[in-house]
Amino acid sequence: xxxxxxxWARRPFLGPMITSxxxxxxxxxxxxxxxxxxxYLALGGLNVLLVDLDPQNFATLCLGLDxxxxxxxxxxxx
Length: 78
Ligand SMILES: Nc1ncnc2c1ncn2[C@@H]1O[C@H](COP(=O)(O)OP(=O)(O)O)[C@@H](O)[C@H]1O
Ligand SMILES: [Mg+2]
Known about the structure:
Elements: H1 7-10, H2 30-43, H3 58-62
């Protein structure tokens, strides 16, 4: 994999890319991988949206955000 500050930042824009990490089994590093992959790509200069739909909020906590201060969606559509 290229270094975060290198090839990812210089690559031609190919459009948005959606990456999902899926496993029915818990504790298999889905969240850990998602958070670190998002951080890696962001460090490489990409605009990254990390969506945390898990009620445990672990990805949100990993980013240092306080879930108590976030505004919940009133009518989530997904
Ligand atoms: N490569 C790794 N080495 C050691 N522990 C890990 C590794 N990846 C994840 N973990 C730990 O395993 C546990 C479960 O990881 P997590 O990403 O929350 O799993 P999931 O989202 O699939 O339920 C966490 O405590 C996490 O810190
Ligand atoms: Mg998880």
